Amino acid sequence: MNNTYKSAGVDKEEGYKTVDKIKKAVAETHNPSVLNSLGSFGAFYEIGGYKNPVLVSGTDGVGTKLKVALDTKQYGSIGIDCFAMCANDILCHGAKPLFFLDYLACGKLDSDIAAEIVLGMVKACKDNQCALIGGETAEMPGMYQPGDYDVAGFCVGIVEKDEIIDGSKIQKGDKIIALPSSGFHSNGFSLVRKVFTDFNETFDGKPLHETLLIPTRLYYQPIHKLLKEVSLHGIAHITGGGLIENVPRIIPEGLCASISTGEIRIPNIMLELEKRGNISRMEMYGTFNMGVGMTVVVSEADTEKVLNLLDDAYLIGEITENSEKIALV
């Protein structure tokens, strides 16, 4: 019997089925700037209408949250997570997402599962007015076990050079406003899985995995609503490392983000994790978002306007003078 690629564990036909299942939905994310369709060697995106454009890019994955999805066979939110982790990062600089590419690797490709993951990306791209213009599906027997998947993505956005947000405008007296998270998002799941070992146990009246797999919140709509009305001095996406590691990334030397922990609205699932896992509160703040998915820093004069524009935003602190860039009080 002659050896074939299929006998080595790679089924090209399943890959073609995947493309067929996603092609129409992916095309719906395209706009006139997308100059070609799925299947080309490279994807083309035309830029116009900017005076001095700067491209802002970000890449990320979903981490071990994937394990929860794979073990419970719930794949719908994973693509949203992948897109959100990339797009929310570039949003911190005021960038509008232009296009997104994905990378999906597995041990044995199942076109239904792959399509479900990519269709989650499509949904997220539409929400962010972003085009999904390409990707790669890699079937890698021997590297991954059958049933295992890994997902990563790459997003490119654009912003006028004189409108870049980098924290340099932050000054003493500015206020720090929280935009709530939708849950754990896609960070800290190695610890989550160590504490919560039964994803089907009941929590808050439903299977635990439903709470754990709530997709990462997309912040494009609220942030761009603010950008039209107020000057944002700084934006921080609260990912791995929590508030403790992410907020200082935008704070200038000599200033400090003084955050009132008593104001933070911690989700029940995180309080349960903390209690059941015997995890210190400081460890929690250094690992999880604790219910704060994004923070914006604005002048005191603009604070009330921001709170009025966004129904769920709330004040958690202010900028003070200090050699340490963050203080949880």
CA-based gyration radius? 21 Å
- CATH C-level label of the largest domain: Alpha Beta
Strand order of the largest sheet: 8-10-5-11-9-12
Number of strands: 12
Q: Determine the mean pLDDT.
A: 94
Q: How many angstroms separate the termini?
A: 71 Å
Question: What class, by secondary structure content?
Answer: alpha+beta
Name the CATH architecture of the largest domain: 2-Layer Sandwich
CATH topology of the largest domain: 60s Ribosomal Protein L30, Chain: A
Strand content: 15-25%
Query: What is the general shape?
Result: globular
Instruction: Give the biggest sheet.
Output: 6 strands, mixed
The percent of residues in helical segments reads: 25-40%
Order of helices and strands: HEHHEHEEEHEEHHEHEHHEHEE
CATH superfamily of the largest domain: PurM-like, N-terminal domain
Question: Can you count the helices?
Answer: 11
Number of domains: 2
Low-pLDDT sequence parts: none
Could you explain how this protein is built, in words?
- Helix content is 32%, strand content 24%.
- With 329 residues, the protein is α+β, with helices and mostly antiparallel strands.
- The protein has 2 domains: 4-160, PurM-like, N-terminal domain (60s Ribosomal Protein L30, Chain: A); 174-328, Phosphoribosyl-aminoimidazole Synthetase, Chain A, domain 2 (Alpha-Beta Complex), CATH 3.90.650.10.
- It has a 6-stranded mixed sheet with strand order 8-10-5-11-9-12. Strands 1-4-2-3 form a 4-stranded mixed sheet, covered by helices on one side.
- α1 runs parallel beside α4.
- It is globular.
